[in-house]
Amino acid sequence: MDGVEFRHVSYRITGRTRILDDFSLTVGAGETFALVGASGSGKTTVLKLVNRLLLPDAGEVRVQGIDTREWDPIRLRRSVGYVIQDVGLFPHLNVADNVAIVPRLEQWPDDRVAARVRELLELIGLAPDTYAGRWPDELSGGQRQRVGVARALAVDPPVLLMDEPFGALDPITRRQLQQEFRRIQTRVAKCVILVTHDMAEALALADRIGVLDDGRLIWCGTPQAIAGSDDRRVRALVESVLP
Amino acid sequence: MTALFRFWLTHQQELATSVAEHILLVAISTAIAAAIGVPLAIFATRRPRLSAPLVAIANVVQTVPSLAMFGFLLPVPFIGGVGARAALAVLVLYGLLPIVRSTIVGITGIDPSIRLAGVAMGMTARQLLRQVELPLALPSIVAGVRVAAVVGVGSATIAAAIGAGGLGQYIYRGLSMVDSTVILAGAIPAALLALGVDGSLLWLERRLSARRHARSRRAVAAAAASLAIVVLAGSALWAARSPAAIVVGSKNFTEQLILGEILAQTIERETGLPVQRRLNLGGTLICDRALITGDIDVYVEYTGTALTAVFHQPAAKDPRVVTETVRGLYAGTGRTLLPPLGYDNTFAILVRGADARARGLRTIDDAARVAPQWRAGFGYEFLERPDGYTGLAQRYGLTFRSPPQVMDLTLSYRALASGQVDLIAGDATAGLIKGLDLVQLEDNRRYFPPYDAVPVARAATLLRYPQVRRALEGLAGRITADDMREMNHAADALKQNPADIARRFLDRR
After folding, report:
1. Would you state the pLDDT for residue B60?
2. Which fold has domain B246-344+452-508?
3. Is the C-alpha dihedral spanning A101, A106, A109, A111 positive or negative?
4. Which residues neighbour B363 within 8 Å (Cβ) at sequence distance 6 or greater?
5. For residue A183, is it left (φ>0), alpha (ψ between -120 and 50) or beta?
6. Do the domains at B2-240 and B246-344+452-508 have one common CATH topology?
7. Where are the domains positioned within chain A?
8. Rounded to whole angstroms, how far apart are CA atoms B8 and A242?
9. What Rg value do the Cα atoms of chain A yield, rounded?
10. Which residues of A78-115 are buried (b: 16+ CB within 10 A; e: fewer)?
11. Low-confidence residues in chain B, pLDDT < 50
């Protein structure tokens, strides 16, 4: 199977409270799954378990059918795109070189790297001729975030993790990028796990939504179904985005 | 000011060599310190528990005064001893702290999200280091290298004390001659060098922290390449310096510099062997140590000093007995005492020439009669030494109007000449005796032990080059106290070059 599967996963920080408790979830190829929850609910931990930045204390995480414990971490991470919260563009590399990092780690030939960079910059809507040579500190927040997405997609990984990708943007830019993300996702059809505290964003982007509360998945279903939930905590989240 | 420029002009070539030596010392030591310090710091960032102790150790090393550091390293095998190698070792130790500290700061200061991005993209630890951590820490590392290099320019002046050359030679020579022109002749280029190093590395650092990183990477590459070229060329020059058969040493005062030249030129003239001069070494202990380790082959010692300072024997009075005792002590340890040069550089009790003539003073006994109306001024060493003031006062029943004043030895000559004091204990061969019209009183009760000037050589060297022994034996008894006084006067008062003075002396014979 091509997606990501969590089977009864628990994770705790040594000597401290449980961060994730008996967490089970399957996200398939081409599906966008949004994980919603307050900060501290364990959302980022879920993502870090997928690309083996963390290993579970109990249960197992399977990526493309293989337990993350059995993956070579380097290989695994190169087949999982990761858009992190603070973007994390390398300030000493220009836009093109930032996007080209993983292809170069994979030792693609130069002309293939160059072609891929152009393709990706067009995909995210930044004209290659204008933006390829720019430096991260010359870009707006929205542009940086787009470059972050392009970088994560560079070697066409089957799985894409997104940690509050649009969180730090102004509302207008956020809407715009969300639309673009949907456009991109219809073309690339990844298994996407998106973490957000913003229910509106989850409703706008996701095929399915999961609600995480204090390390437990308390609700999981389609955006259409979530309005009908009678769980008090889920209702609070949904009502927060109603006009 | 004009004197300074004149000095530079007349010492052009020597100055160029010293500047080159100085730059090489700093460039090579800084390069080595970076080559050790950067990996060490990277290791420390991987083992955070090590990083604090490491910086603490480097801090402690940094606080050891450099002269003391040279002293500590003297007996250490391979890197110790005298010469460029030991100087490099000390400079490397000093350079480590700023480089280690700034590399650690540079790496740990990287935004964690950037490092996380690298790891999450599947970089191996090595790829993360080379592609992310090092490039981002580079400005900070260069800042550390800059501090190390600037500190190095300063510390390298002290390297002259162990014969590593460089601009410090002028500073030491100037200090021993109490000639501020000579001190400045070394200090000013050293200061300019420090400013230049600071400025150029600061420029590089700014380039690196600026936005245009691609171009600055080229700047770093260029800088690293030019440093590598300097280091390589320097080491090649160093290695290619004519392999000297004989190394002549000397202590760091005027008379010793002249004697060193006399030995060196005598060997050159008589044997044709290539001679290296390692003059201006920082004192008896360093010269002796260098002789034992083979860093030098011969230098001029004084019998009384050898007896008391080198072999820690009680002072004795009879010159012949002292010479034979010292000869035996040296012979047992692979060193050979050659025949004395002919003069005795003992303490000299000095009075103004005018007083001596007016009162008919010839001996210390004569002076003891008038001393109760006089003031005396002595160097610190003379007041402390077992063969110094206390014994002298007892032997001659000397009392003064007030307790003797403590003053710098060199300054005491001028204090005497200008009438601030009436009697001093100087150096029998001081050039100032002639220059300031002073008179040495005879030690008629034979109080002072003998300080016959005598070359000491490595026995192994003399066995290998018997012609060197013959050449140096040719100097036996050839230098009188008057000769030496005149030569010291030519150097100290007339500012002539020790090499020229020695050449004239040898030509005259």
Report:
1. 83
2. D-Maltodextrin-Binding Protein; domain 2 (3.40.190)
3. negative
4. B441, B442, B443, B444
5. alpha
6. no
7. 1-79+164-243, 84-156
8. 86
9. 18
10. bbbbbbbbbbbbbbbbbbbbbbbbbbebeebeeeebbe
11. none
Our CA-based measurement puts residue B214 at a distance from the nearest CA of chain A, in whole angstroms, of 8
> Is A94's CB within 8 Å of B214's CB?
yes
Predicted local distance difference test score (pLDDT) of residue B133:
92
CATH level 3 topology of A1-79+164-243: Rossmann fold (3.40.50)
- Total-model pTM: 0.71
Task: Tokens for A164, please give them.
Answer: 């509050």
* Burial class of B115 by CB neighbour count within 10 A (0 to 12, 13 to 18, 19+): middle
Question: Whole-angstrom Cα distance, residue B502 to residue B495?
Answer: 14
Tokens of B83: 């010469």
Domain chopping of chain B, boundaries: 2-240, 246-344+452-508, 347-441
Residues in A closer than 8 angstroms to B141, CB to CB, are: none
* Predicted local distance difference test score (pLDDT) of residue B46: 87
Cα–Cα distance for residue pair B322/B324, rounded to 1 Å: 5
B113 contacts chain A (CB < 8 A): yes
> Is B117 in contact with A90 (Cβ distance < 8 A)?
yes
Write down the ipTM of this complex.
Answer: 0.88
**Residuewise pLDDT in 10s, chain A (243 residues):** 578 999 999 998 776 677 888 999 999 988 999 999 887 788 889 999 999 999 999 999 999 999 999 999 999 999 999 998 777 899 889 999 999 999 999 999 999 999 999 999 988 888 999 999 999 989 988 899 889 989 998 998 999 999 988 877 788 888 888 888 888 888 888 899 999 988 888 988 999 999 998 888 989 999 888 888 888 888 888 877 765
Q: What is the CATH number of domain B2-240?
A: 1.10.3720.10
Of B111, B121, B213, the CB nearest to A101: B121
pLDDT digits (tens, 9 = 90+) for B212-237: 555 556 666 777 777 777 777 766 66
Query: Domain B347-441, what fold?
Result: D-Maltodextrin-Binding Protein; domain 2 (3.40.190)
Give the pair of three-digit tokens for residue A210: 């999961």
- Contact between chains at B117 and A51 (C-beta distance less than 8 A): no
For B380, half-sphere exposure in the C-beta direction (CA atoms, 13 angstrom radius) is 1
B117–chain A nearest CA distance, Å = 6
> Looking at chain A, how many residues does it have?
243
Interface membership of B211 toward A (CB under 8 Å):
yes
CA dihedral (B116, B126, B110, B37) in degrees, to 10, reads: 160
Q: What backbone phi and psi angles, to 5 degrees, belong to A83? A: -105, 110
CA distance A193 to A45: 12
Nearest to B120 among A51, A91, A92 (CB): A51
Among B116, B127, B136, beta carbon nearest to A92: B136
**How many beta carbons lie within 10 A of that of residue B231, not counting itself?**
17
Query: Which residues, including other chains, have CB under 8 Å from residue A140's CB and lie 6 or more apart?
Result: A173
Percentages helix, strand, coil for chain B (3-state, rounded to 5) are 65, 10, 25
A105 at B interface, C-beta within 8 A: yes
* Tens-digit pLDDT profile for residues A128-164: 999 999 999 899 888 998 899 899 989 989 999 999 8
A109–chain B Cβ distance below 8 A for any pair: no
Rounded Cα gap, residues B154 and A100, in angstroms: 46
Helix (H), strand (E), coil (C) string for B428-486: CCCHHHHHCCEEEEECCCCCCCCCEEEEEEEHHHHHHCHHHHHHHHCCCCCCCHHHHHH
Site of tokens 């008996």: A22
Single-letter amino acid, residue A36: V
Residues of A in contact with B134 (CB under 8 A): none
> Using CA atoms, how far apart are residues B440 and B427, in angstroms rounded to an integer?
10
